[in-house]
Amino acid sequence: MMYRKLALLAASCLLSVSAFATTYDDAVDATFKNDADALAPLLAKGLDPNTVTSSGAGEPLLMLAIRKNANNVIDLLLKQKNIKVDQPNTLKETPLMIAIFLKDNDVINNLKLRFGWGATGNQNVENWAYMAMLSSKTTPWGVGVLTGNTPNPELKWETTYSTNIGLDLSLFQNRIEFIADVYYKKTKDLLLQLPLPSYLGSAGAGSASNPWANVGSLENKGIELTLNTVNIDKKGFQWRSNFVFSLNRNKVLELDTESASIEKTYSVGSENSVVTRTVVGQPIGQFWGYKVIGRFDKAEDFYYKDKEGNVKPVALPAGSSIEEGKTWIGDYIFADLNNDGVIDNNDCTFIGNPEPKFTYGIGNTFSWKGFDLTIFLSGSYGNDVLNYNRRYIENPRVNSNLLKSAANYAVLERINPDGPDDFRNLRVANTSTTLPRISASTTNANNRVSDLYIEDGSYLRIQNISLGYTLPKKWVNKLNLQNVKVYANLQNVYTWTNYSGYDPEVGCMYGDALMNGLDYGRYPSPRIYTFGLNVSF
What pLDDT is attached to residue 84? Predict the structure, then answer.
């Protein structure tokens, strides 16, 4: 019991960052003499293993290894690396590590608690972004120069402060290994390129690149878990498993102004639409657009009753009215979020988040008499994808290059076959369909960016299957070789997903983290077959 209490006391001392009055030499003497009785009073008084006295004896390095040997003697070594001490008896900076090794314990083989803190800088911007540069331009009269960029002399490094706590645990002769990390990261002085209006010379021939600026701060927090197991290991057969789980949440803490936002647009032809928006208090790069709440299947859908029972018209897009060439039976109904009776940009809202709720990976390796088989699966859950393709190739108003699902459009019919083509005498005949009507023209903009094109991007993929065979040594030695292995490898084998596009693993458009999850014809991950031979001489 004494040794167990001493071990727990030493471990608790390692978590302390307060200064205590003790001497480095006393601790070292007791430690390296394996004198548990001499060290116990120091620990009982509150020994801070990271404290260095002004005597400066030795180096500021202590190691603690607690192990039980055949004579029931506990060796205590206190280890602490990378510590800066600005004044005696004061701990100023970590990382901090506790390592407890139980040599003869049949259950716990390794127990390690880790704590880390650090700051890293990022200056990943174009060269000379802080000063005005000139660019060359060839003209009929020779080579001229013009403004190449919009400088920002106040530009400085982006800094990320990270804190993490981790646990390493090995059990049953290392057959089970568990690793857990909890982290928090705060990034200050975010480096982003600010979009300027085109009339300021940021677009077109001879334009200057947009300025870089430090625009705010961002936090990331999450957990990472890893489990490695040896499931079977006998009679030449071994089965190992690996499971990885990762969860991350990010939130914008600050931008350059309290009401600021960063909007990312995507252009197709002459159309330029906002697809993501980043604001304070929300995750970065969330999808931005309208909400579709129904379809005008009959005349009554153009009206609704308020709380007092009064009949009121449903909000229509700005400049539109109930006409065949404007808003008509078979068109979509958009949510009037600000209740002003008009559908416009003020009714846009967050419609999806491209960041997954969590990601994971599962691996299994089997080996037997020279054969080895590895199967790895990866997956993502809870991330949204903006299927931008469907805006165009599922639009029934387009007459070429369409998906088969574009035939699922609304067909109109007269209620009274002999009546007029008035909206009060029309209805959608196939109400089970989901797409709007076919029309020569409309002001309703049915294919505007909306939650209709947001899809669940969750997936589970067989990422890799590898099969190999290592020839027996007695065969290889006859050929004067050290090792010979033949193998076959298959990547991107199969994917389970409800996403209607080619590949749910979309990534970032143009490598921009604020345009993550936007799919406009992204080339899918190919299936790759590999066969090979490894020979060691």
Answer: 34
